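Shipment paperwork, digital attachment
Item: protein structure file
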Amino acid sequence: MSEDPDESNSTTRADSGSSRPVPLVVVNLEETLTEVGGPQPWLEDPNNQQPWGRDLTAKPLVEFPKVRIAVSVMRANVRLMQPESNGSMVFHTLSGRIRLQCEGMEYEVPERCILAMGDSIPHEIVALEDSVVLMTTVPVESGGS
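Attachment content:
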């Protein structure tokens, strides 16, 4: 396709023969990290006024009904508690190292590794070092299948 992804946010489903538009989002992670202050925003902007403080910066990248993706930049030793989760989650550590605690177990997710977690499991993430994490959530569908 010759269409520039920056000029359009939809495309046509080619595999089904349908002409119905399908949302399309192209995210340049390098540019996104620059927008949130780089891999260590607390060094770049010591006056960062994020509501959660300078140690955690998060930015939603994709928000569709059946999938949400966000990038989080976490300073070492920051804890992110999720007492309720509304779906399956995937954590992809782009840089650094995190520990995910859930159901009495601990799982370390080093750089360039992925951890996937089933539906609605309460959990806590701890940045073991300065980290950038891509978080994908597939929400639980309401009303059954």
